[in-house]
Amino acid sequence: MRHAGISCICLLGLFAATAGAQDNRPNFSGSWQLNSAKSEVHSGKPAAIKLTIEQKGSTIHVVRTLKATDGKETSIEFNCTTDGKDCDAKGAKVSLWYDGSSLVEMDIGETVTKSKMTLSGDGKTLSYEITFISPQADADNLELDKI
Fold first, then answer.
1. Where on the phi/psi map is residue 137: left (φ > 0), alpha (ψ -120 to 50), or beta?
2. pLDDT for 6 beyond 60
3. pTM
4. CB 109 within 8 A of CB 87
């Protein structure tokens, strides 16, 4: 009887800790624009990057627009949950999950990348580290400002 009570208390504590961790996850919602002066880009110099994120609970809608120096724009849009399950994004598979207070994104398509997004304490800056897995290349470390 006593052993069952201790097990029950341990399980309740685990559930409470998990629920508390989910409540502390930052909301990445907003429109974000590349601050090229504070960014380190190795994959090619984009003229502009704009990221729009709408986050509602564990569902995130992302629109990422890249503008090349020749003026050509490409846009990727997807809806995904933050439980690590695959979502479709214009011919690629995307998955999102939290690593502490950072949001991790894995993109598998012609290239394979793993990105980590972290909000600043005041919520006005988004650090966006992109690791190129295949083909391998130096990581991009972007800083985006909320607009």
1. beta
2. no
3. 0.81
4. no
